[in-house]
Amino acid sequence: MKKREPKSGPPAHPDKPAGTQAIQRAALMVRLVASRSHTGMRLTDLVKHSRLERPTVHRILQGLIAEGLLRQDAGSRLYFLGPLVFELGLAAAPQFDLRDTCRPTLQRIAEKTEDTVFLSVRSGYESVCIDRKEGTFPIKTFTLDVGTRRPLGAGASGLALLMPLPDETVNEIVRANAVRYVAYHKNLTVPSLLKALKRSRELGYAWNDSHIVAGAATLGLPIQNRYGHPFAAITIDAIASRMTESRRSQLVSILRAEIALAEKSLKAASEP
Questions:
Q1: Is the pLDDT of residue 15 over 50?
Q2: Contact, 262 vs 104, CB < 8 A?
Q3: What predicted TM-score, i.e. pTM, was given to this entire model?
């Protein structure tokens, strides 16, 4: 019987220090999952694309799950990026200076709309406001201060960050934040949040006219990386009387155009 030849993995680098192969293989798994993390990736596909033996792939995946770099959905058994990836991304943000890159975007939106514009980022199961630009409209509704943290899903920024995520991930986040929602706002419950998320997805933009400040309304959209993961959001805040349906359409058009430019700039900044 002919002996089966082992699968060939990533090319060896004999000039690199011992232990490099394990790091290379783990990084390869993260990159492969990231390429399809919006829909998830099967173990069989990871074996196929990595060209490694199934037991080796499974062992690496289990290690990455234990460290929070990956997660596996209990129902579908698909693999997705884990929460630590977002935490590491936030820690790396000062190097890429997301605020500096997006500041011209916020400025242009504030000038075009005359309203207040916010930039928030995802941090695990929270959203954090990292920048704000005021418009010229005399009546302000400051629903966020720079540095404010909210449970992910609260407010338009939190809804925008949830919108592109698969339902399995949304349910995981919502379960983890259930107690915090009520503490944040007495009318914000899991059912009301999921209802608001459903409405936002149907509208095509995050919309929140409750759970903030009386008489204020906010809409927003996520900023996504090349893999389709929402890591930040830009929102526009104004008094409710300014947020008519026709004006919301105008604001969303402005947001879409500006976010497309911001995503292009961020992609260029991240390339070697």
A1: no
A2: no
A3: 0.67
